[in-house]
Design a protein that fits this description.
This protein is α+β, with helices and mostly antiparallel strands. The protein has one domain. The protein is built from 5 helices and 6 strands, in the order αβββαααβββα. It has helices at residues 2-12, 53-61, 64-81, 85-97, 133-140; strands at 27-34, 37-38, 42-43, 105-116, 119-127, 131-132. Helix 4 crosses helix 5 (133-140). The longest helix is centred in the middle third of the chain and has 18 residues, at 64-81. The radius of gyration is 19 Å and the shape is globular. 13% of the residues are buried.
Length: 141
């Protein structure tokens, strides 16, 4: 019985040893460019400032938005470690899907946020080339 319990417990109680390293994840920021006018950088999918108890409970059972956010974090981390066009394309497509249609170009960057001497510091680790928003939204369907 103890052997069976020792096999079952790791599936219920997560272990930090599952991860190779624990480090800050890059955040995705985007901006729109239209007719040479460059917009301000905006955080993609900012976290809500407050969640009620009902929202927390619902999110524990059903949260496809958070699953997609975790996928984007994974793409971002891969893009930093081993750059690939696949990761760039996935981030572009998923950011573009939530934006209103328009003639703009989309550009994203990956930033690491840290606190140094009481100030918040952003370190830009990657900046993409601008891509047509219409082309991306047509690819999404």
């Amino acid at each position: 019985m103890l052997h069976l319990l020792s096999l079952f417990l790791p599936t219920v109680i997560p272990s930090w040893r599952f991860f190779k390293t624990v480090a800050p994840s890059p955040r995705i920021e985007y901006r729109l460019i239209e007719a040479g006018r460059v917009g301000d950088w905006q955080e993609d999918r900012p976290r809500p400032g407050h969640l009620g108890l009902g929202q927390i409970l619902r999110r524990m059972l059903w949260n496809p938005e958070w699953n997609e956010q975790l996928y984007l974090v994974s793409c971002s981390e891969r893009l930093i470690d081993e750059p690939s066009q696949h990761s760039v394309d996935e981030i572009n497509l998923r950011v573009a899907r939530l934006l209103p249609a328009g003639q703009q170009e989309l550009q994203f960057r990956l930033v690491f946020v840290s606190r140094e001497q009481g100030q918040i510091v952003k370190l830009v680790e990657y900046e993409s080339s601008p891509v047509s928003l219409i082309t991306l939204q047509e690819a999404v369907g």
